[in-house]
Structure formats: structure tokens, C-alpha cells
Amino acid sequence: xxxxxxxFEDHKVVRFYPLALTRPLDQMRMGILTxxxxxxxxxxxxxxxxxxxxxLKDIFDADxxxxxxxxxxxxxxxxxxxxxxxxxxGLQTGQGLTCNGVPIVVRLDGDRTVREFKKLQQWVHGFExxxxxxxxxxxxxxxxxxxxxxxxxxxxxxxxxxxxxFHHNASQIEAxxxxxxxxxxLNHWPLKNFFYVNADDVYVGSGAKLDPGIVLDAxxxxxxxxxxxxxxxxALIKGPVAVCMNSTIRMGxxxxxxxxxxxxxxxxxxxxxxxxxxxxxxAHDGYIGNSLIGEWVNIGADTNNSNLKxxxxxxxxxxxxxxxxxxxxxxxxxxxxxxxxxxxxxxxLNSGTVCGVSSSVLTNNFPPKYIPSYAWVTDTGIDxxxxxxxxxxxxxxxxxxxxxxxxxxxxxxxxxFKVRDGRPVR
Length: 426
Prior knowledge:
Number of helices: 7
Radius of gyration: 21 Å
Strand content: 25-35%
């Protein structure tokens, strides 16, 4: 009998919108790996499925469960520590783990897992009828774990808010190094025509390119340079930092600790304590700090975000769950920008700004702290970014990386356009 992983989302996934609007929460990157990949490394189980929100159907894998197999259901909000592995391995069918009373891991047999998936299929079919009727917001479907016997265990981090991801990103880069155990360090690099500190903690993947004149300072944490990554001349990197597969750090860039450049990103200027998911560009001067950036985002030249208020008080952030500003409790908190959004040159963004999907910031002034999806923000106000024009732009941007928009991806973007003025989950 095999054992598989099954990632699920509880109702608090709404708090992680707008970045989680376009991906399952387990596909969010934190450190070097996605949340799902962390579990796969720790448990050494590489057969996974997930519950899927209806508008993400056919974009992300969600294989049907198999009767007779066991499934370890994992709350996607929980970031595991490697010490949780023996606790998960010791679970019997019908047993689970909680953290602060929240179910984080549950082991179910295949028959019950199949039943739960059938309920979810009804949810998905209802969504398709919902779209056909021209409706917008759609209710969230929760998973029932009645009858499970739980043990409290907090060997990891339970994410409560989106800012938790960048706030703990530095420690997660270090944790992921321990998980993936890269063996090729800077000590194996043939030409060291640059300055470095603590070569044992600089990890370089195959096919990476390190130009002359760079500075790699791993004195306060590791630097991970993934396969095919390119660190251009004059770049300054102070760990812990992750430059993932095929990403580029541009000439003269200043990259501070707690920063992740996800796969196929380009970073320039000054970046600190920020996570770029993948395929996003901040190629020019300007500052992005204490921020979360989605996919296919383009940060215009000399764009700067504030991450600290003038009175040094904690930053308030728009909360997708309540539709109101929420105190983050953080003194340093910057920008949350979802997929396909863009800023023009010289853009200015307040601390705690939240920007939805496929929006454009084109104003000479500070835009509002909450920018809905498909917004066209200028000095005269906020207009709606035409859906067909947004799709045309997305096609061009994605085709440059050899990726085409599928019908399912178009359906997702169309739904998010419909709910641009509100919240897609009530």
C-alpha cells in the first residue's frame, strides 16, 4: 500500500489573496522551495495531489485519489520543520496533528479520501454553473475531518497572514539549504575573480554564471545560486539570499538578506526581505523591501516602495478576508503585488500597499493602499483595465518565456476580472 500527500486549504486561505488568487497556497514560494516542495523533501514522498479551488481547475495538478492507498492530508498554511517527519510517520489512519488547535496533518485511508474528493467535485461543478449564470463571488468549500484523533505538535510555522512569508523568509532559506543539501559550494568554483566571504556557505548550481567584480557575503547566512542563474558584474549579495533556477541578478544590484528571486526572475537596484515568486522582473534601479511579488510582474525603473512609516508605528495592510485595513504588527512592511501587475517608471508605493491581479500603476502620485484587480491607476483616478487588452498583454509577456495561455488559464483570469471590485470568496 502506498502513501500519498494531499494538500488542502482551510478558510483562511482568503487572507493570502491576492497572490494566492492565481495559485494553490502550497505553490507559494518561501525560502528556496515552495511550501509543497518542503513537505516532499521532509517526508520523502513525491506523490501528491491537492484540493483545488474551482477557478484553478486544470491549471494545477489535482489527481484523483486511489482507493486502497493512504493519504496524508496537509494544511497548506503550515510550513514544516524537519523534526515533524517522525511524528507524521507515526500517524495511523484516522489520526492527525494540530498546531494551536488547527488541523495541520491528517492521515486518511483512500476510501474516505475519495469521498471527500467527490464532495469537492460537486463544488467545482457548482462553480461552472455559477459562471454560466454570470454570477461572481463563490462560497468556499471546507474539508471535514470528523472523528480524527489529534495530537498537538508545532514543529513548524502556521502562517496566519501573507506578511508571515517574507518576515520568516531568511530563516526559511537557511532551512531549505538543510533540506536540499547542495554539495557544490564556491570552493569548487574555478575562477574567483570577485570578492567573497564564507565560501563554504555559498552554493552554486550547475550552469550558473558568476561575472567578475561581484561580492558574495555569506557571513550572516547562506547564498543559494540555482542552476542556470546569472550574477552579473558588480552585483552585491549579502545572505541569506536565494537566487533560484535561471534567474538573473543585474549589474550593480544590491540584494540584502531575506530575499528570494524565484525561477526566471530578474532583479536589479536594491532589494531586501522580499520574495519574487517566478517570471517577474525588477530589472532596474529602485527599492523593493519587505514585500511579496507574484508571477509575471514588471516593476518599472526607479519604482520605490515604502516599508517604514515616518512615525515608526506598525503598518496597516488591506485584509482580503474583511475588506478592511488590518494592523500587521510589523514596523517594516512593504508591497503585496499579484500576478501580471505592473508599475510605470518612477512609481511610488506606500507601506502596506496591496495590488490585485493584472493592474497597472501609472500615476505620478501615491496610489491607494488597496488597488483592486484589473485597475488602471493614473493621476485622474482608477479605471478598469479592459479584459481583452489585459489578456493580449499577458500573451505577449508569457510568450517571451515560451509559455502559452491555456483555456483554463484564460478562464481563471476571466473569473478574476468578474470579481475585480470585490472578494471572490464571501
